[in-house]
């Protein structure tokens, strides 16, 4: 760990002001950032503790929910309105990490967590374009069982590790940002970037911007939603493939549907193609499988993760079948 | 292999031959008294009771002091920098920034490290403890990816870690052997283990196999595994003049003391190693570079040093289990009687490691078969020295052998348990000697009944609940009984009726101190609270390894020897005025706080009375057990019948063990609570071996890619179902207390039981561990 200074911000304005002094990082629960600092992958000169900022979880007038950037994962997963209106979000959060980590991890920190690619972590010996653009990628010809099958580039095949963000992507969540130039919002699905030739740039955030909240817009269909995570052990493992989905079926036909995938790409992967293909189609196993095939049509596997393509298709279809219940 | 090594192994082979000859002419009554240990017959003692661990409350309160918890005046903290190439040399190392960093006391590299002798490699001499015998920071040579290249001492751990990150090393890399296939291409040689070649031949296995009515012939693979004890390796070290004191986390205190003396040119008595508590050993807690480097740095700096490896550090500089590629070919007649057994394969080792993974060892004594070829070929890789890891050989060897037996059973249409029963040997097929105690058929029978084996449908894929395919599998567990030479014990009996027993053994969480308190109390006829066990200190008697599942037997025999001496002395002291007058040592037993005639309990005098009448405050008796000739007379092993029920998700392939039962035949069980915990722990490790654990070794540069508990998957609680444990409790008349080892056997057979259950659930035969979901797509 490299020496750093520490300051606690009591509100967003103070946080932004501290940041203006440069080379800083906002600190939430520290469950990812502190690990990366220990590995000297992150080397901030200054940490600005933003855990005193809003951690509220509040209902909006139209039936949505706004979650403060400092809200702890556990608080979100246990919240009554989230469990009843957005059950996939509760399930996604409890599918991740461990209770101790979820007690610490914040909303904003979860959205900003970095890949668990082992070569990204091996600061001493491995090449990584995410750590140092242009250096090369040791994962491409190395161990890549956990790596991306969608949207990867020749520079980077890392995945985004969050479970929560997969649910947020399916829910059309909106990220609230605040910077010195003012406030703005970005749909979560547009918030993370694909790697391209700059995998070091992971989001559309501008320097110094702070995530103050995440909004879940009202979504009545989300009462029929779930999150399924497929992994190598029953707990405390990152997703090989995960699926967050919500579906509304009317008279045996898909009225509306939301699908997002985890463990397959550099960002939470909103399955827009599959969604579009399903709307208006009969809610049958055949339709679900066809939609999954379509979504994965462009998948490109690495040496060790070809199984993920089929696994993703099956898991999408199984989740949708499960949510369809007797309607399918 | 060097000429020196070859010569040494030849010498060891000669010793084995001499021993065997000596044994042939030795009387069968080599054991004290020539009769079974009297404790086997004792009915109402502490042995066999589920006594809770005496160290439990201390650990629950955090009061048990582990190696990294000794706090010494002026102590500084160590951090290590590890090489990033597998072979070559350090061309340049820049330590200026590290030396100038806050709190730094010392930066040590090969340029300023004191001159040290290489560590004596484990098994090369009887007190050798080194994982390998490479020089430690003596020159610019790099031997593996992860080798320590610099050590920093600083006033705080954080300062040491920071300074380490400032060290810049330039390497001149050389071509390294890091690819298994290339290493095999360069040639292999027959492995050697415990002084004997890993090669056995009886009859003509190739011919018998070719002639067999039914055959199976497959290749099984197991990956590398790394040690992940809950307590990462650590030591706190101080020099007091020329005396070296090491508070270590070790399973070999006396070995470590002697080995450190060799390395630092000290008298053995000037090295004092303590290890009161160890947070798991499993074969990995021996002498590695961290203790040596920390001792060297402590000497250079004149300060006490604490070194506590990070989890990554454990992966970089502590050996693990090497990978194996094993062929098992079985031939049988149509009734399932084995006619041919071939178990052969390849395992890589580092040029300097002490161990070729000896995967054929469990096969030697497994089945009655007249034609057998067993062979371990070894190739060398430039890698961290591989080492002992819970049941080295047996853990992965039984996976291959017992999977193959399941495959043969299916081909024959015979129940897998029945197939094993039909091939039960009446003597050791390789050694030719009788078994000392082998009740594996009974373990299977009782286990099958309890588990509900009759509910199994032999047709794969025939049971399904929702998305889940359910299957059952079984396999044989086995691990040798060892009793290594060198043990000793001292009993001190006080005139207040208390006894203290001392031996240089280890408590790594197995329950050693508790069980030996029970055993000693029974031997002396004392209540538990009158017995104090002292261990974990190299100044105590004996050279006792907590390894090979032999510590309990080694201590047990040593205590028995000390007890016999003690009784002789007590009878002398008792003299002619005692009710014991005229009795011989083998006519009395320890009971009710004193000695009594074996058959006439009224002839009794208590210890306090004997000592007081003799004007003795205390009586000390040292015991050195006889050589382990029992191992030459009999084929001695622990056994188990393992039963697994698994659920495999038909959509995702996820395998999850839903039930497990281990039915063991391990002699007399001394403490049901601690023994069950050992069995369960082994089985949990076996679940990891079967389903999740794999060290990712990048063949491009020999680097371990997943050196963390996040990426190296050991089973978590949710992966572990209720595990039922039962045992025959049939004592072995040829061992102390009638007991066999229980520490390692749990991991054996488990991999095959799980793989066989997976096959029964899905019809997929996975021969390549770990059995991850991608291998189970239908």
TrEMBL record, chain A:
Keyword Flavoprotein: yes
Keywords noted in UniProt: FAD, Flavoprotein
Domain FAD-binding PCMH-type span(s) in chain numbering: 1-221
Database matches in InterPro entries: CO_DH_flav_C, CO_DH_flav_C_dom_sf, Diverse_Substr_Oxidored, FAD-bd_PCMH, FAD-bd_PCMH-like_sf, FAD-bd_PCMH_sub1, FAD-bd_PCMH_sub2, Mopterin_DH_FAD-bd
Domain of life: Bacteria
Gene3D superfamilies in alphabetical order: 3.30.465.10, CO dehydrogenase flavoprotein, C-terminal domain, Uridine Diphospho-n-acetylenolpyruvylglucosamine Reductase, domain 2
One Pfam family here: CO_deh_flav_C
Name listed for the protein in its UniProt record: Xanthine dehydrogenase family protein subunit M
Organism: Shinella lacus
């Amino acid at each position: 760990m490299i020496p750093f200074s520490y300051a606690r911000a009591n509100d967003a304005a103070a946080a932004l002001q501290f940041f203006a002094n440069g080379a800083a990082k906002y600190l939430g629960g520290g469950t990812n950032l502190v690990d990366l600092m220990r590995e000297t992958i992150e080397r901030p000169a200054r940490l600005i503790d933003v855990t005193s900022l809003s951690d509220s979880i509040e209902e909006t007038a139209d039936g949505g929910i706004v979650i403060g950037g400092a809200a702890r994962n556990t608080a979100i997963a246990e919240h009554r309105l989230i469990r009843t209106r957005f059950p996939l979000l509760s399930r996604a959060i409890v599918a991740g990490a461990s209770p101790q980590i979820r007690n610490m991890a914040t909303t904003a920190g979860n959205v900003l967590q970095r890949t668990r690619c082992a070569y990204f972590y091996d600061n001493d010996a491995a090449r990584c374009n995410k750590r140092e653009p242009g250096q090369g990628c040791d994962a491409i010809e190395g161990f890549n069982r956990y790596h991306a099958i969608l949207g990867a580039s020749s520079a980077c095949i890392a995945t985004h590790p969050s479970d929560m963000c997969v649910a947020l992507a399916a829910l059309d969540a909106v990220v609230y940002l605040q910077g010195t130039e003012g406030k703005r919002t970005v749909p979560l699905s547009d918030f993370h970037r694909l790697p391209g030739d700059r995998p070091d740039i992971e989001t559309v955030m501008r320097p110094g911007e702070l995530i103050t909240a995440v909004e879940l817009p009202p979504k009545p269909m989300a009462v029929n939603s779930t999150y399924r995570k497929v992994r190598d052990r029953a707990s405390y493992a990152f997703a090989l493939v995960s699926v967050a989905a919500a579906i509304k079926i009317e008279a045996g036909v898909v009225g509306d549907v939301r699908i997002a995938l985890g463990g397959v790409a550099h960002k939470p992967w909103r399955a827009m193609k599959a969604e579009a293909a399903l709307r208006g189609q009969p809610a049958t196993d055949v339709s679900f499988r066809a939609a999954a095939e379509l979504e994965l049509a462009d998948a490109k596997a690495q040496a060790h993760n070809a199984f993920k393509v089929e696994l993703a298709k099956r898991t999408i279809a199984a989740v949708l079948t499960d949510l369809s219940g007797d309607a399918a | 292999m060097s000429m020196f090594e070859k010569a040494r192994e030849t010498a060891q082979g000669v010793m084995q031959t001499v021993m065997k000859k000596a044994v042939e002419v030795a009387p069968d009554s080599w054991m004290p008294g020539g009769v079974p240990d009297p404790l086997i017959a004792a009915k109402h003692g502490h042995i066999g009771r589920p006594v809770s661990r005496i160290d439990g409350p201390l650990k629950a309160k955090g009061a048990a002091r582990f190696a990294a918890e000794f706090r010494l005046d002026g102590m500084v903290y160590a951090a290590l920098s590890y090489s990033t190439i597998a072979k070559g040399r350090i061309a340049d190392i820049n330590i200026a920034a590290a030396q100038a960093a806050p709190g730094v006391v010392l930066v040590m590299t090969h340029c300023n490290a004191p001159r040290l002798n290489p560590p004596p490699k484990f098994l090369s001499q009887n007190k050798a403890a080194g994982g390998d015998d490479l020089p430690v920071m003596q020159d610019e040579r790099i031997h593996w990816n992860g080798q320590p290249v610099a050590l920093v001492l600083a006033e705080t751990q954080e300062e040491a870690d920071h300074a380490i990150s400032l060290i810049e090393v330039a390497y001149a890399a050389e071509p390294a052997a890091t690819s298994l296939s290339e290493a095999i291409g360069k040639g292999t040689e027959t492995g050697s283990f415990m002084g004997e070649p890993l090669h056995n031949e009886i009859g003509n296995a190739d011919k018998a196999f070719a002639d067999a009515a039914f055959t199976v012939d497959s290749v099984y693979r197991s990956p590398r595994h790394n040690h992940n004890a809950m307590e990462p390796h650590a030591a706190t070290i101080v020099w007091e003049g020329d005396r070296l004191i090491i508070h270590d986390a070790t399973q070999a205190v006396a070995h470590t003391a002697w080995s450190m003396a060799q390395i630092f040119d000290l008298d053995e008595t000037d090295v004092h190693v303590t290890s009161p508590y160890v947070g798991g050993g499993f074969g990995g807690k021996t002498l590695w570079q961290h203790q040596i480097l920390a001792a060297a740095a402590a000497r250079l700096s004149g300060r006490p040093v604490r070194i506590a490896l990070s989890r990554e550090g454990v992966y970089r500089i502590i050996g693990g289990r090497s990978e194996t590629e094993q062929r098992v070919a079985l031939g049988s007649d149509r009734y399932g009687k084995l006619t041919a057994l071939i178990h052969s394969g390849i395992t890589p080792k580092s040029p300097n490691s002490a161990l070729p993974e000896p995967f054929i060892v469990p096969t030697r004594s497994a089945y009655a078969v007249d034609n057998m070829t067993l062979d371990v070929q070894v190739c060398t890789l430039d890698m961290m020295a591989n080492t002992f890891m819970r049941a080295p050989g047996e853990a992965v060897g039984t996976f291959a052998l017992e999977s193959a037996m399941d495959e043969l059973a299916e081909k024959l249409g015979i129940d897998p348990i029945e197939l094993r029963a039909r091939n039960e040997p009446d003597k050791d097929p390789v050694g030719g000697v009788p078994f000392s105690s082998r009740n594996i058929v009974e373990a299977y029978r009782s286990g099958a009944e309890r588990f509900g084996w009759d509910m199994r449908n032999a047709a794969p894929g025939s049971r399904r609940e929702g998305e889940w395919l359910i299957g059952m599998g079984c396999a044989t567990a086995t691990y040798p009984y060892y009793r290594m030479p060198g043990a000793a014990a001292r009993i001190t009996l006080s005139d207040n009726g208390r006894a203290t027993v001392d031996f240089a053994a280890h408590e790594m969480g197995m329950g050693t101190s508790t069980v030996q308190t029970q055993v000693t109390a029974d031997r002396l006829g004392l209540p538990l609270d009158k017995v104090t066990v002292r261990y974990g200190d190299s100044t105590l008697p004996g050279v006792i390894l907590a390894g090979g599942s032999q510590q309990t037997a080694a201590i047990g025999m040593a205590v028995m020897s000390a007890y016999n001496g003690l009784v002789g002395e007590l009878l002398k002291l008792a003299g002619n005025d005692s009710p014991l007058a005229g009795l011989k040592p083998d006519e009395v037993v320890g009971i009710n706080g004193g000695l009594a005639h074996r058959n006439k309990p009224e002839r009794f005098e208590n210890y306090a009375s004997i000592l007081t009448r003799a004007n003795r405050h205390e009586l000390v008796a040292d015991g050195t057990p006889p050589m382990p000739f029992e191992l030459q007379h009999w084929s001695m092993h622990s056994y188990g019948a393992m039963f697994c029920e698994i659920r495999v998700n038909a959509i995702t392939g996820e395998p999850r063990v839903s039930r497990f039962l281990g039915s063991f035949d391990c002699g007399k069980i001394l403490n049901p609570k601690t023994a069950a915990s050992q069995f369960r722990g082994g089985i949990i490790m076996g679940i990891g071996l079967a389903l999740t654990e794999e060290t990712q070794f990048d063949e491009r540069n020999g680097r371990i890619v997943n050196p963390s508990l996040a990426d190296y998957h050991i089973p978590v609680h949710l992966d572990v179902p209720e595990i039922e444990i039962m045992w025959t409790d049939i004592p072995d008349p040829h061992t102390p207390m009638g007991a066999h080892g229980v520490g390692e056997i749990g991991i054996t057979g488990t991999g095959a039981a799980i793989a066989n259950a997976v096959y029964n659930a899905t019809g997929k035969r996975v021969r390549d561990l770990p059995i991850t979901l991608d291998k189970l797509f239908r």
